[in-house]
Amino acid sequence: MKTFGCVCGNRLHFENNRCLVCERSLGFLPGLGVLTALEPAASGNWTALADGGLYRQCANYSRYNVCNWMVPAQENNAFCVSCRLNRVIPNLSEGNNLTLWARIETAKRRLLYTLLQLGLPVVDRSSDPQRGLAFKFMEDPEQDNEFSNAVTPQRQVITGHSTGIITINIMEAEPSERERMRERMNERYRTLLGHFRHEIGHYYWELLVRRGTWLDEFHALFGDEQADYHSALGRYYEQGPPPDWQQDYVSAYASAHPWEDWAESWAHYLHMTDTLETAQDYGFRMGADTGERFEDLVSDWAYLGVALNALNRSMGLEDAYPFVLSGRALEKLRFVHQVVQGQCGAAFA
Ligand SMILES: [Zn+2]
Ligand SMILES: [Zn+2]
Ligand SMILES: [Zn+2]
């Protein structure tokens, strides 16, 4: 993630909606990939100082302040390219759902930023009902009554992906709840952004690998995805990963099934590319300093990942990147890199 500059000279961050120095309103222009200062224009529109264009705030910006993205004034859609992907949002009249939703949208925009940066196709479901993307942010239904077993509430909304629709249980936006789930699942890393990056991996597998020309190579690296998915997951949750999983997989969960292996590898690739961009923007100097070659990406990441963990330990925090990448895991990441580089924009051409 880059930082951006206000016309007043202040440094702006991706989530900002107002410059703290000159107090101008801000908006992100997804078409340009920049956060810009805005000047009010006629009929509720705004002039973006980055390109002089006329824009409107996304409806989720003007109504709820859970978004800071803009829509070109001539476009009909009330929502920005991120918010128009929503099919279900939480019931905002309940509890702190507005707060939870705002956190979810923030993580989702970070995801979208990286997808757009990488040139990956982002198409909403109404434009393409077969191959488009949609999100559902849902909460578990109420327990039957106050005497139901509240100690182990049953999750009924399963975070996951199914044919282009990504569902997120909104309790993932509640840190204490997410941490409880992380421990229960025996995971080393669980974040909202991580969920988005993992689930979108399933989406792009269908779009780019299954429908593309990569299936043979996928099978050679990840195995046969036709293996029964539900029994594979059942086995994983019962027995855990194989003892030597680190030799083959980026994470323990990746060992559950070739689809999960792919989604975990994909998520790691997005972790790497986004974090490296952030480091570069803040002037971290790493060895390779070039963009496109996978070897450079990996050597920069090897350095930065260790530095990140060391910085966190200096603050008394857990490791930011609690993973070690084996040679085999890196081969899988190289494959993700090739798919991303090779298929950008091509899926909808
Ligand atoms: Zn400013
Ligand atoms: Zn929006
Ligand atoms: Zn998955």
From TrEMBL:
<dbReference type="Pfam" id="PF15887">
    <property type="entry name" value="Peptidase_Mx"/>
</dbReference>
<dbReference type="InterPro" id="IPR031321">
    <property type="entry name" value="UCP012641"/>
</dbReference>
<dbReference type="Pfam" id="PF10005">
    <property type="entry name" value="Zn_ribbon_DZR_6"/>
</dbReference>
<dbReference type="InterPro" id="IPR011201">
    <property type="entry name" value="Zinc-ribbon_6_bact"/>
</dbReference>
<protein>
    <recommendedName>
        <fullName>Zinc-ribbon domain-containing protein</fullName>
    </recommendedName>
</protein>
<feature type="domain" description="Zinc-ribbon">
    <location>
        <begin position="4"/>
        <end position="93"/>
    </location>
</feature>
